[in-house]
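Archive transcription. Copying these from loose printouts into the bound notebook so they stop getting lost. Printout 1 of 2:
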Amino acid sequence: MRVLRNCWYMFAWAKEFDAAPSITRVIADEPIVVALAAEGAGNGRSNAAGHRPIAVTVKHRIVWIWLGDAAEANVSAVPDFSCFDNVNDAGFHGGHLPTAAHYELLTDNILDLSHADFLHPDTLGGGAMTRSAPRLERDGSMISVTWDAPNDVALPIFDRRLPKPGQPAHVRLQVRWLPPAVMLLRAQVAPAGEPLENWFESNSAHIMTPESEFSTHYFYGAVRNYEQDNAEFTAKQAAVIRHAFTTEDKPMIEAQQRNMGTSDFWSLKPVLLSIDVGAVQARRALARLIEQSGQDATGHAQGN
């Protein structure tokens, strides 16, 4: 499988290793086993022919693997999810959702948050994102897309927390994308006219790790700046989020993949809208990085 190899991929949530000392998953068509010691140190290897070593590091509650040459693994390049370090277990939830679709289709979904107004109208939507124009910014390899609605309606999961549910709200959502498919979504909501930083905020990970050409490990997790010590509230939020992903996002994306079959995305000549700006930029940036890595059609370095 042709993917970017000299980078970090999420392999698992560290919490998953509480139930087993080692986990085996297929990543980019390669079976990989990772083991964690009690103190959190990890080691990995490929279960394919040759049993090559896999570099492993644990940071921000996440177990990361370097898919390229282990000797070239750069720990300083691990994506920043330090927001997950600032809360205890009662205020954090994370999940893993296998999805039968190419990982970039899932990236497209997160980089166009206007989809929430249609797929998740009762939880994560509300209409504000559809009425907002996405603003794109680039900083090195990072692409961020921001939707800002200073006087609109709050997302339903935030609206009930406002002093007066239904009152005008300032809503700002920002997705930060890093290659190959690592995203942090920051959601802020306040009564219209109030400083966002004084009110409600959540930060959620949406990390897509390819299993094969047409299957993906979708990892998601979230923290918030309210009810941080309320484990019952966290469990209820986790159930709402998983239900939305499982019954709304996942069926839509898997149907999209079935309709596309094995066709290359660009070969289908998709109609591009202004709301697609983030997804298109991310696809093109990733394609350039893979091309610059000098891989052949099989995904291996040319000449090997």
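Printout 2 of 2:
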Amino acid sequence: MFETKLRPQVLEGFKNEIIKLLEKQAVIKMLLELQLVVSRW
């Protein structure tokens, strides 16, 4: 009984964490690209 109640919430948590990680990676990537552009000037 416990497991079926927890699973959807756990999955939602995982999804949110993964989205956060992907967003962080995207931001870092953008910053690195900006640095490259700036260093070329």
